[in-house]
Amino acid sequence: MENMKRLPDAEFEIMKVVWEKESPITTAMIMEEIGDKRKWKAPTVLTLMRRLVERGFLRTEKKGKERTYYPLISKEDYLELETEKFMKQYHKNSFLSLVNTLYNTKEPSEKELDELLKWAKERRK
């Protein structure tokens, strides 16, 4: 999993649908969920699905005329890997640097600060 590459935005959009739905998933399900919003045609979705299979994110099976797809990587594993890369690249693995950046972008509400403090205390136990 360490050599896993970051997903391009279009492929990540598809994976979000795959992770959200119960397996197996079909291209028709992808088209129904995001095809119209993104103005994708079926060949585009098929190409993106094929790329995800080639990259090891999906496994495919042929059932009659239709292909079905199964995730090989969980959403949690992918997000953990991406977050780890992000923290190393942009924040030198500093949680405080990340929090400062977030705070400078959007001041948290009192409720969010309380939740963050509660979360931090629970993690230290």
Instruction: Note the run of SSEs as H and E.
Output: HHHEEHHH
Mean pLDDT: 90
What would you give as the CATH superfamily of the largest domain?
A: Winged helix-like DNA-binding domain superfamily/Winged helix DNA-binding domain
Largest sheet: 2 strands, antiparallel
Content of β-strand: 5-15%
CATH class category of the largest domain = Mainly Alpha
Structure class = mainly alpha
Main sheet: strand order: 1-2
Radius of gyration, whole Å: 19 Å
Distance between the termini: 30 Å
Form type: elongated
CATH topological fold name of the largest domain: Arc Repressor Mutant, subunit A
Helix-residue proportion: 55-70%
Please give a handful of descriptors for the protein shown.
single chain; 125 residues; 64% helix; 10% strand; WH_DNA-bd_sf
